[in-house]
Amino acid sequence: MRITGAQLRIVEMPLRSPFTTSFGTEDDKIALLIRIDAVVDTPAGPVESTGWGECVAMDAPVYSAEYVAGAVEVTRRFLLPKLLAAGSSLTAQRVSGLLEPVVGHPMAKAALEMAVLDAELRARGISFAEHLGAEHDRVPSGVSVGIQDSIPQLLEVVGDYLDQGYVRIKLKIRPGWDVDAVAAVRERFGDDIPLQVDANAAYTLADAAQLRRLDAFGLLLIEQPMPEDDLRQHAQLARLVSTPICLDESVVSARAAADAISMGACRVINIKPGRVGGYLEARRIHDLARAHGIAVWCGGMLETGLGRAANAALAALPGFSLPGDISASDRFYAQDITTPFVIEDGHVAVPSGPGLGVTPNPEILESVTTWKDDLPV
Ligand code: OSB
Ligand code: MG
């Protein structure tokens, strides 16, 4: 395909309730979206197409080093020019290789790959799910519950999500909000609800005794207890606690996943396409983990309907044996920019239309846009 147009856009969408993690509180989702216009070669000849990419970098570099304004800069100045230089030989398959000379910035790279892949698949009439190798038409829906102001408030929020049918609850934890929160949820809702926790790197090995107290609650996993670059320490912690360790932030590539698996640093991996540089690298990690008997599930970054659509497609691959953080649009947004994803019988449907299978509603998209720029092509 050949790129004929590229537009960057920042959207700002109010969250239905503030989302608090160990790294801070978000009241609004601020995201970079990329639209690529292209002429795609198909068996039926060249076809004009459009693709959408969503960059999961947050407004501030608190989850990983990337952030929205940095993603804008690296995309316009370094990444997009490399795709343009490829001319008509560009394919989604080639994007990650073309962008490899730029160090880091996986979220910006993933968004570009997503847009190129979407344009390509729309032109060919193939869905993300079919292209990635999905085997299900719906995926079980888990929900990530932020740190609350009090235990009673936490119990109310969790009870509400269970009423909506969410099949797995993930509690955000941090020192001071961990064992008591988990104990209270277990006491109120019983031992049978699938429950897990996510520390977003807030602990150190010195907290092993406290984390070990979580073993009493039959959790599915403890996600990313320690910092991103502490693979060895995660391997040590894994020997001190019986709850499976899951890595999120640490798994920045298929190579990092291979290291983590071989060191015994995790028994589970949270796969986020943005964190690893794209949907195709995400699929490689899925394949690698599957071959090693490591469970994977699809994480989320508060995506709009665009990223949610792609995540649902990925989560429908056969190795995704645990429910992902793929909740309904209304878990975060009163109004999504696409047709909203809904939870039905504890599941979210995998879109089956060409490409992402969803497109932004133009009026809604404009109403949440705070900045946009057409890039020279
Ligand atoms: O660590 O999984 C995380 C949101 C923002 C940044 C990091 C994380 C999260 C979540 C929310 O847990 C997942 C979702 O989109 O539902
Ligand atoms: Mg996480």
From TrEMBL:
Q: Which cofactor does it need?
A: a divalent metal cation
SMART domains attached to this UniProt entry: MR_MLE
Q: Name one GO molecular function term.
A: racemase and epimerase activity
Pfam families to which the protein is assigned, alphabetical = MR_MLE_C, MR_MLE_N
The catalytic activity of this protein is classed by the Enzyme Commission as 4.2.1.113
Instruction: Give start and end of each Mandelate racemase/muconate lactonizing enzyme C-terminal domain.
Output: 151-244
Keyword terms of this UniProt record:
Lyase, Magnesium, Metal-binding
Q: Which SUPFAM superfamilies match?
A: Enolase C-terminal domain-like, Enolase N-terminal domain-like
Instruction: Tell me a GO biological process for this protein.
Output: menaquinone biosynthetic process
Q: What's the protein called, per UniProt?
A: o-succinylbenzoate synthase
Gene expressing this chain:
menC
